Amino acid sequence: MNIDLVYYKLYEFLQNNRPNFHHGIFKFISSPSLDSAVDIFQDLYDVNNNSLKSIFEEFSDVTNPVIDYMLFINGEEKYNILEFSFSTPTEYTFKYYWDQAVQDNFDQYLPENLKGKIVAWYMPGSDYRKRIAEKAAANPPKPVAIKRWQPVGQLMEEFEIRYLDPNHHGYPQCAGDRYLQLWKTHWNTYMVCTQGLFEENNATSLGFELYFETEEKPDPIDESWQANIVYELGKLLPKVTDLSQRFETYKYISVQIAMDGAPEDWSLNEHDNIGLLLGIEHEEFQNRNLQFGFRPVNVKLLRPAEVRVIKLMNAHGRQRLVDFFRQRGKATLSSLNRPSAVKEE
């Protein structure tokens, strides 16, 4: 269990409810009750060190991963405080520890014969943990759908592109539930990956999933330019009827997508379009003999001059670019700082 899962939700909550927040302390205090409960201590300041009001809006998006994390760290030890100290909104330290005062404050309301004997919800042997285990046993997870990218490393975060969410109306039907996931790879890069384009024994399956690889950590994933690229491709590719045949024929496919606010030095002149190249094979997949039940398709961000080469030379231009990327190394990586493989006009 990674603390970043908690931080991402807390950061998003602060951005939405205290956009002028700059530094301070968030402390999550796990009540030693029989059912999951988390109290929150807040000491918030803006960039000018002005004190901000505490936030009293619904915290469930934040407290749910906190509860999961508390269950995780209390597997063998005993902790009831999780504390974030922010020096900036994106720079923080955290610690977890046991505060006996939390237990003492709870015990004062109990009969003498029960003081010190209540097993808090987050402790081993609690009724809450037992109910979770019973529920999990009664509802076993679907086999490995969420683990399909597991060979690359550690799942850090995901968000679901919900069919009933009005923000995603018009997003095409996929073979399965639609997700974007952020993975930290064994070779210390980050991948934004699709889940749902492929589904075994499904007639609408595209047979592949997309991944966008970068050395820059998308932060947070659902607001990052990396995820936005993959999201827009996920809208476009299911509508291409002969996509599998194109991959068979050309090996590499070039795509242009429209993105509002695309960086000027990456944007083509027409309608903020940016260019992408799909299908470069990953050396780490091959060297490590990583096996997937689908075809993993790399998404490579292209400079405008590189797109013009493809327009001029078609398949030959795509192959020349792939050869050049391989010569430079890290062919599947994308970065806003990457120099062009072609002389810019």
Using the alpha-carbon principal axes, give the shape. elongated
User: What is the radius of gyration?
Assistant: 24 Å
Structural class: alpha+beta
Helix content: 25-40%
Number of helices: 8
| Main sheet attributes: strand count, strand direction, barrel closure | 7 strands, mixed
Oligomerization category of the chains in this entry: single chain
Strands, total number: 12
Instruction: Pick out the low-confidence regions.
Output: none
How many domains is the backbone divided into? 2
Proportion of residues in β-strands: 15-25%
Cα distance spanning the termini:
48 Å
SSE ordering: HEEEHEEHHEEEEHHEEHEH
What is the spatial order of strands in the main beta sheet? 6-7-8-9-12-11-10
Structure explained in plain terms:
This is Suppressor of fused-like domain-containing protein. The protein has 345 residues and is an alpha+beta fold. The chain has 2 domains: 3-138, no CATH class; 150-328, no CATH class. Helices cover 29% and strands 23% of the residues. It is built from 8 helices and 12 strands. It has helices spanning 3-17, 60-73, 100-107, 127-138, 225-236, 243-250, 283-287, 304-328, and strands at 23-30, 38-45, 51-52, 81-88, 91-97, 153-160, 179-185, 190-195, 208-214, 253-258, 273-278, 295-302. The termini are far apart. The relative contact order is 0.09.
Summarize the structure.
Helices cover 29% and strands 23% of the residues. The chain is α+β, with helices and mostly antiparallel strands and 345 residues long.
